[in-house]
């Protein structure tokens, strides 16, 4: 009896990543680590949020003891907002970040970004969305001009690849083979 393997699914998620004000000078270094972890940086912008904008962004934390310190910290300087994409982006980004408390991250996840760049529970260097739903909300907040369309998966993704990507690749690679340039790049 022959076992049938399911066809691989093409599914890409997006998540929001923030490089917080105290480590914005390490932007290039952090981006390199993000890319090496298999993420694609889809969009990026540097901005400074007002305390009111920070309050709106972290509205789910309202009423907690650290909320005033959080909004003051996040509005204290520029930050870098990025939309990251890859398979299971939300969970992989959370894994790369490590625990939200940087001191605990150093003990339990010493190679995580928060262990490397964070200083304490509040100044943990980076932000990551907790779920796909929060990622969509946070991306819309930081990139209001973006139209978030659902990313095709399964048969829709295969249809898209067959209709648009494969013909373009085939034509380009065929032309490249016919030309046989000394330096194909």
Order of helix and strand elements from N to C terminus: EHEHHEHHHEHH
Total count of strands: 4
Helix proportion: 40-55%
What is the fold named in CATH at topology level of the largest domain? Answer: Alpha-Beta Plaits
Radius of gyration: 20 Å
Family: Belongs to the NDK family.
Domain Nucleoside diphosphate kinase-like: 12-150
Protein name: NDK5 kinase
GO cellular component, one term: cilium
Describe this structure in words.
The structure is a single chain. The protein is α+β, with helices and mostly antiparallel strands. The protein has 2 domains: 12-142, Alpha-Beta Plaits (2-Layer Sandwich), CATH 3.30.70.141; 152-184. It contains 8 helices and 4 strands; from the N terminus they run βαβααβαααβαα. The chain has helices at 27-36, 51-57, 67-74, 89-97, 102-108, 113-117, 132-142, 154-179; strands at residues 13-19, 40-47, 79-86, 126-128. It has a 4-stranded antiparallel beta sheet. α2 (51-57) packs across α3.
